[in-house]
Amino acid sequence: MAGSAGVIGQGKSRAERAVFVATILLGSFLLFLVQPLVARMALPRLGGAPNVWNSAMIVYQALLLAGYAYAHWLSRLAVARQAVIHIALLALFALTLPIALYDMASPAAGWEVLWVPLLLMLTVGPVFFIVSAQAPLMQRWFAADPDAGEPWALYAASNLGSFAGLLAYPLLLEPMLPLAEQSTVWSIGYAALVLFVAACAWLRRDAGALRDAPVDDAPPVTLRRKLHWLALAAVPSGLMLSTTTHLTTDIFAMPLLWVIPLGLYLLSFVFAFADTRWPARAITTVAPAVMLLAGGLTMISRHTGSVTLGIASVALLFVVAVALHSRLYELRPPASQLTLFYLVMSLGGALGGAFTAILAPVIFDWVWEHPILVVAAAILMPLPRAFDWSRMPGLDIGMMRFAAFAILVIALFLAWLLHGIAVDRTLSIHRLGLTLLLTTCGLLLMAWRWKFLAVLALLMVAQGGGATIKASWQGIRTRSYFGVYTIIDYPVSKVRALVHGSTLHGQQSTEPEKSREPSAYYGPGSGAALVLQNLPPFARDEASIGVLGLGAGTLACFAEPGQRWQFFEIDEAIERMSRDGTFTYYEQCTPDAPIVLGDARLEVAKAAPGSFDVLLIDAFSSDSVPLHLITKEAVGVYLDALAPDGVLLIHISNRYIELEPVVAAIAREQGLVARARHDNPAETNSYTPTSWIALARDPATLEAVARAQPDKAWEPLVEAAPQPWTDDYASILPYIRWKALLGDL
C-alpha cells in the first residue's frame, strides 16, 4: 500500500516543491482569513451570540464539502483539462470581489438559525467554494508525477496555512486596517492565488489523466472503512464547535476566544498529517490521561467563569483532535484515492458541525452535545497498551478479572467522595488528589474500553455533572439560538436569578412585598438608578424611556406614572420570561410597554428622531461584549433617536474588557459630554458593583443629574482610546484586562 509517508517531492527540484507548498499555504491562509473577516462585516447585523459563530462555521463546512466534492469530480479528468476548468472558475468568481456583505432584510424572530447561514452563503459562497478546492486538488496535481512522492504532508501544510490565517486576522489585519482595506488585501491575495495555481498547472502540463480506479492492485475502499473515516472526522469537528459553545456559555464569553478552538482544531491536522510521526504519537499516548482529567470537567455548569476550565477545555480538544486525526491518517488510502478520502473527511466534518450547531440547540436544554462528543471521542480514540497489565505473562485470567472489577469498585467509591467535595466548587488538595486517583484507575482499566468509559463517566458526574443533570431534570433551563438561560432560586435569600452561562442577567426577590425592588446591577447608587430617579427637569413630565436589553426586566420598576417606556430585546425566550411570570418586574411595573423583538441597534434605527428622553444600553454586563452596539455608528443611531437634551446611558460592567476608553473615544468624536458612575455597594448580597457611563449633548443635562444627588459622584472618563471603535475598524485586544484574565487561573 502506498500509505507510508515519503519525502515530499523526492527527486524533484526544491523550486517545484516550493510552488505547490506555497499554493496550498496561500489558499488555506486566505480561506481562514476570510472567515473572521466576513463575520466582522456581518457583526452589526448578526450580534455577538456564540451560536452566530457556530452558524458561520456550518456555512464554511458546507462550502468546504462542496469544494472537496468538486475537487473529487474534477480529479477524474486529465490534469490539463482540470487546470483549464479550475482557473476559469477562479477567474469567474473573482467578479464577486471585493467581498461585501450581501444586502438582506433582517430575519423575523426565531428564524436566525436559517437567516445567518443564508446571509453568509450569499456574501462569500462563490470564492470560499472555489478556494476550498485548492488543497485536495493541488495535492492530486502534485501526485500526478510518479517521482513526486507522497502528498499527505501537503495537507499538514494546508492546515498550517489555515492556522496562520486564523491568527493573522485578530492579531494583524483587524487592528491595522478598516474593513474596506481588509477586503482589498484579501482580493489581492486571491489574485496571487490564481497565479500560483496557474504555475502549478504549468508544472504538470505533461501529466496524463488521473483516474479514481485503484492502482498498484490497491483494493477498493470498503463501506466500513469510509464510515470509520466519517466518524473520525465528525467527532473532532463537532467537538470543536461544542468547545466554543461550552467556553462561551459556562466559562466566559469573550469573542476573541471563539477562534481558539478552531485554531487548535486546524493545528491538530498539522501534527496528525506530518511526515515526522513522533509528536503525534506522543500526544496520542497521553490522550487517555487528558481525556480523564479534562474530559471529567465537561459536565460542569457552575455559572461562574474560570480560566482553568477554559484551558482544560481547549487542551482536551487539541489532544483528542490530534489522536483521532492521527488515526485517520493511519487509515488513509493510496494517493490514487486521495480526493475520495478528503471528500469523506469533509462530509464527516460537516455532519459533526451540523449536529452541534443545528440539531443540538433544538433538542437539548444545555450544551449536552459537548460531553456526548467527549464520550464519542473516548470510544474512537486509540488506547495505548502502556498500562495494559492484562497482557503480563503468567497472570491468571480469573485474578485479572477480579482485579479489574476491584479497581472499578474503588473508582466508584472515589467518585462518591469526589462528588461530596466538588459541591463547594473550590480546587482543594483533596479534590485534586481524588481526581488523580480516579484518573489512575481509568488508566489501569484501558485494556477494557467500556471500563475506561465507565471511569470517565464517573469523573464527569462527580466533578459537577450531577448538578447539571439535576438542573435539566428540574426543567430550569431554556435554550435558544442566543444562549442557554438558567433560572436559579435561592431559598435562603429568597431571590430568583436569571443566568446566561456565566453572566447574571438580573435577579428578583421572591417575596411579594419586595418583588418591585430593583437589585443586582440596579442598586440605588448605580448609574441607572441615579439617572432614572433624578431625571432632569425637561424629562420629568411624560418622559420617554428606551431600554436596549430586557434581561429580567428590572429597569421597568423605575417607571413613574405618565412615562412612556419601550424595550428592545433580541431573544424571544427572554421576552417570554417577563410575560409568563418567571420574572414579574415587567408585568407589575410596565405591562403596557412595547417589547420590540430583533437586534436592538437595527430596531432603534427605525424610531422617529428625538423619540427618547433617556436611552439605556444595557447589554454589557459580565463577560459578553456585543461589539456592534458600542461603535461610533451605533452611538450615532442612538443619538438620532435621542431628544436634543436627552441622556444616553451605557452599562459597561465587564470582567475582562475595559470599555471606558472606547466610550470616551466615541464621546470625543461625537462631541458629547460624558461622565462615569462606578458603584461598589456595601450590600453585596442584593446589589452588584457596576459601571455606567452617561452621555449627553449639553453639559447642563449631566450637571442636573449630578446635582440631584451630590453624594453620589460622577467621575470624568479615563483617557480616551486613540480612535473609537467603528463598524469598519475595531479590535478588543488593546482593552483586555489581562490581570483579571490571568487572575482567574
Describe the protein's topology.
Layout: H1 14-46, H2 50-74, H3 79-93, H4 112-132, H5 134-142, H6 152-176, H7 179-203, H8 223-250, H9 259-272, H10 278-295, H11 307-330, H12 338-363, H13 369-380, H14 397-422, H15 429-444, H16 449-474, E1 477-480, E2 483-490, E3 495-500, E4 503-509, H17 527-532, E5 544-548, E6 564-569, H18 572-579, H19 585-589, E7 595-597, H20 600-604, E8 612-617, H21 632-641, E9 642-651, H22 660-670, E10 673-679, E11 690-696, H23 699-708, H24 738-743
Helix pairs in contact: 1-4, 1-5, 1-6, 1-7, 2-4, 2-8, 2-12, 3-4, 3-7, 6-9, 8-9, 8-11, 8-12, 8-13, 9-11, 10-11, 10-15, 10-16, 13-16, 14-15, 14-16, 15-16
Provide an overview of this structure.
- There is one protein chain.
- The protein has 24 helices and eleven strands.
- The chain has 745 residues and is of the alpha/beta class.
- The protein has a seven-stranded mixed β-sheet, sandwiched between helices. Strands 1-2-3-4 form a four-stranded antiparallel β-sheet.
- α1 packs antiparallel against α4 and α15 crosses α16.
Radius of gyration: 28 Å
Q: What percent of residues adopt helix (DSSP H or I)?
A: 40-55%
**What order do the strands of the largest sheet run in, or round the barrel if closed?**
7-6-5-8-9-11-10
Give the uncertain stretches in residue-range form. Answer: 1-11, 209-216
Based on secondary structure, the structural category is: alpha/beta
Terminal residue distance: 48 Å
- Average pLDDT figure: 82
Number of strands: 11
Write down the overall geometry: globular
Characterize the largest beta sheet: strand count, sense, and whether it forms a barrel. Answer: 7 strands, mixed
Q: What percent strand?
A: 5-15%
